[in-house]
Amino acid sequence: MTEDYKAKRHQQRQQQLKEQVDQAVAKATDDKGLLLVLTGNGKGKSTAGFGTVTRAVGHGYKAAVVQFIKGDWACGERNLLQQHGVPFVVMATGFTWDTQDKAADMAAAQSVWQQAKAFLADERIDLVLLDELTYMLSYHYLDLDDVLASIRQRPAGQHVVVTGRNCHRRLLDMADTVSDIQVVKHAFDAGIRAQQGVDW
Fold this sequence. Notes:
By secondary structure, the protein is an alpha/beta fold. It has 8 helices and 6 strands; from the N terminus they run H-E-H-E-H-E-H-H-E-H-H-E-H-E. It folds into 2 domains: about 1-30; about 30-185, 3-Layer(aba) Sandwich (Rossmann fold), CATH 3.40.50. Helix content is about 45%, strand content about 15%. It has a 6-stranded parallel sheet, with helices on both faces. It is globular. The N and C termini lie far apart (about 55 Å).
């Protein structure tokens, strides 16, 4: 098999691929506010969510961030994005195994959720990140029907990103895009602590 023949076959395969991609692009003509869910047991769900926020802000869109679960520790994404006008609402109670106070955690979740609902009703906001929202549903800190209704009734062009493990089936069914991020290996399992600038 000559090099010229290999090059020609490669070109033919790539042309066929290009035609398939072009056809798929041509069929995708609708615009709407998307609901993206980033779930699974792997690392990177919040990181991916913040990447989407950063992308939106980089294009001049207005974004807002709501962080459930997270404590009051330093957050590199918050340090950066607040400088670009992104409002943050943070539950700031930390992990449930640290607080060990269900009533206080539920009250904090409800308070933060009310602010999240205001973002979800604001036509001026193009993208809302609901970081770690899935835990609030699996712990029953928030009412599932209320959460789904608020997301469903948001402004037509507003995008929403939800992160967290064990996403409820009804939220998965409602989503436009779902990514299930799984663990292959994790440095923490080898005794390496979380690294500033990479993990937080």
